[in-house]
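Encode chain A's predicted structure.
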Amino acid sequence: MENFAERTHEAMQDVVMVPGAPGPAVHYYMIRGGSKQRNITIWQTGTVGGEYIKTYGHYHVGDLDETYKILEGEGIALLQKLVVENGVPVIDRVDEFKAIKVKAGDSIYMPPGYGHLVVNTGRTWLVTSDDSPVDGFNDSASMPGHADYEPVKKMRGFAYYVVEKSGAPALVRNPLYKEIRSEILNGLSQ
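Encoded structure for chain A:
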């Protein structure tokens, strides 16, 4: 398994709010240790078209959960669970959406069935460790086999984007989503 990857500005164009807006050459770095070691992710600071730097976002394949520990910095974790009809997730309808503020020392649990991404809203690097099982079939540090990125790509991101508004994080609804049944925004303005 390759252990290091970086998510470039070019690769993030599928999921940013403003494709083509300038940004850093690399949005974040990943060092993968698999199930025997923890994984480390390091986010750049800043924004792309007003949107804070974030991870690409994904849903887990199978019944996997994951816990992130925030080692340095501050940010917002976005979690969303899709509506399921006849056993099939409907990618443009969200059953539950959560925006959770995180800072150094916090842990955030990603339950099975929830898509997730993390956003760096601070002025320093955001650094996390996680227990994602990145050592299965066809795993790589960049696109691990336990993660499904395709629904996020098709919807150009999650149900909300986290943007800088008057120097603070705020949420902007992604217009491609037809429905959000339940949302917990934890005081973030829209």
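The chain has a mean pLDDT of 91.
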